[in-house]
C-alpha cells in the first residue's frame, strides 16, 4: 500500500466511486378512460342549452335547479355540480349563496368589452388568412352566403344568422394559429349569443352581408391590410350598435 493509499484525506478528496445515474422522476399516470364522463356530457348539454336561450331578450332571471337537472339527465347531482362549476368559471352561470345558480346575462358594458376583444382577435386572424389559407378555403367563405342574394336575406333571417356565426368561426379557424383559436373559443360562445339577438335589429342583417362580401373580396385578393381593417371595423360596428340600441342589456 502506498502513502497515497494510506492517506484518508487524499482518498476522500477524490469522492466516492460513481454509481448508476438516477432515473428521472416521472408522474404516475393511470390509463385514461376515453368515454366521455357524465360531467363532460352534463357540461356540454347545459352549455348548448344556455347558448340556445334568448337570454338577452328576457328581463327575468333564469334559475337552474341542480336537483331537477340531475333527474332530467338521469344521473347523480355530483357531475351536474361539477359541470356547473366549470360553466361558472367560463362566465355562463353564477352561484348566489342561499338562492341558487343563475344564467349570466352580460351587461351592455361587458358585451362591448367582449366585442372589442373579439375585434382584435378576428382582425389578426384575417391578416393570417391572407398568408396561409388556400384559395379553396377562402372560396368556401363566399359559398356560405350564396343562398342569401337576390333579396332572399330577410326571408331566411334565421338561416342567415347561423351562416353569419359560422363565417366568423371559420375566419378564426383559417388563421391556423392554435393559440388564437383557443383564446377565441370561449369568447365566441358568448359572442354567438349576442350576435343571434342583434342580427335582426335595425339594418344589421343588410349591413352584415355587405361587410362580409367586402371582407371575402379582400381575402381573395390577399389584401392583408384591407382585410384586417375590414374585419376589425365590422366587429366594432357591432359594438357601436350595441352601445346605441341595446338598451335591454342595461
TrEMBL record:
Is Transcription one of the keywords?
A: yes
**Highest taxon above the source species:** Bacteria
* Region annotated Disordered, chain positions: 1-25
- Xref: CDD domains: WHTH_GntR
Listed GO molecular functions?
A: DNA binding; DNA-binding transcription factor activity
Domain (HTH gntR-type): residue spans on this chain: 36-106
Please report a single Pfam family linked to this protein.
FCD
* SMART domains for the chain: FCD (SM00895), HTH_GNTR (SM00345)
For this entry, the protein name equals: GntR family transcriptional regulator
The species is Pseudolabrys taiwanensis
Q: What is the lineage of its organism?
A: Bacteria, Pseudomonadati, Pseudomonadota, Alphaproteobacteria, Hyphomicrobiales
Amino acid at each position: 500500500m502506498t502513502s497515497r493509499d494510506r492517506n484518508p484525506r487524499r482518498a476522500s478528496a477524490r469522492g466516492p466511486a460513481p454509481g448508476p445515474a438516477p432515473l428521472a422522476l416521472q408522474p404516475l399516470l393511470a390509463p385514461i378512460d376515453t368515454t366521455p364522463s357524465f360531467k363532460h356530457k352534463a357540461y356540454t348539454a347545459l352549455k348548448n342549452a344556455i347558448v340556445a336561450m334568448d337570454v338577452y331578450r328576457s328581463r327575468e332571471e333564469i334559475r337552474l335547479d341542480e336537483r331537477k337537472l340531475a333527474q332530467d339527465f338521469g344521473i347523480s347531482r355530483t357531475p351536474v355540480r361539477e359541470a356547473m362549476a366549470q360553466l361558472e368559471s367560463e362566465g355562463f352561470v353564477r352561484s348566489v349563496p342561499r338562492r341558487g345558480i343563475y344564467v349570466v346575462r352580460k351587461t351592455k358594458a361587458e358585451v362591448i368589452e367582449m366585442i372589442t376583444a373579439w375585434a382584435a382577435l378576428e382582425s389578426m386572424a384575417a391578416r393570417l388568412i391572407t398568408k396561409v389559407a388556400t384559395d379553396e378555403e377562402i372560396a368556401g367563405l363566399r359559398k356560405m352566403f350564396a343562398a342569401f342574394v337576390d333579396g332572399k336575406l330577410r326571408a331566411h333571417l334565421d338561416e342567415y344568422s347561423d351562416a353569419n356565426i359560422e363565417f366568423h368561426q371559420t375566419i378564426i379557424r383559417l388563421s391556423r394559429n392554435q393559440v388564437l383559436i383557443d383564446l377565441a373559443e370561449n369568447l365566441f360562445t358568448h359572442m354567438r349569443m349576442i350576435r343571434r339577438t342583434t342580427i335582426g335589429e335595425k339594418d344589421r342583417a343588410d349591413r352584415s352581408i355587405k361587410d362580409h362580401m367586402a371582407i371575402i373580396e379582400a381575402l381573395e385578393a390577399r389584401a392583408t391590410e384591407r382585410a384586417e381593417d375590414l374585419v376589425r371595423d365590422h366587429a366594432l360596428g357591432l359594438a357601436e350598435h350595441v352601445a346605441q340600441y341595446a338598451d335591454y342589456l342595461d
